[in-house]
Design brief:
seven-stranded antiparallel sheet
Length: 130
């Protein structure tokens, strides 16, 4: 994975599918929140092809990732910088969802499942593996 100081473009088919969904998400916000999001762009979670999930990446309205949260510094450190991955590394956009996965020995067990909203090739998502 490359560590470029330039923004990383989201895959074009992915951005074409994401943008209307992100714009629709603006409808539920207050006017002040909507204005802020339109100026700064949304923060989204993406999964890379190697299975790593970037829980906070800042995207502009042209489909470029401007910054990512470096999670290895911890949530409190809030170390943000240029993306350390490339367009080719991106697998999907989505979020983690907690779902029931009961077993005989753990009848109330829940696991975190990556819920894909859009794949890199533009397909709308279905849940992937954990």
């Amino acid at each position: 994975m490359g560590a470029d100081s330039l923004p990383v473009d989201l895959p074009a088919p992915m951005w074409l599918a994401m943008k209307p969904l992100l714009e629709r998400d603006l409808l539920g916000l207050s006017s002040q929140q909507r204005q802020h999001r339109q100026e700064s762009g949304p923060a989204v979670s993406i999964r890379l092809r190697d299975g790593k999930v970037k829980r906070w990446v800042e995207v502009d309205w042209d489909g470029r990732i401007k910054a990512e949260l470096y999670e290895e510094y911890g949530v409190r450190a809030e170390k943000v910088g240029p993306p350390r991955f490339t367009t080719d590394d991106i697998e999907s956009w989505g979020s983690y969802e907690r779902v029931w996965q009961p077993t005989w020995s753990h009848p109330i067990k829940k696991v975190w499942l990556w819920n894909v909203r859009v794949w890199a090739d533009g397909r709308l998502g279905e849940p992937a593996t954990q």
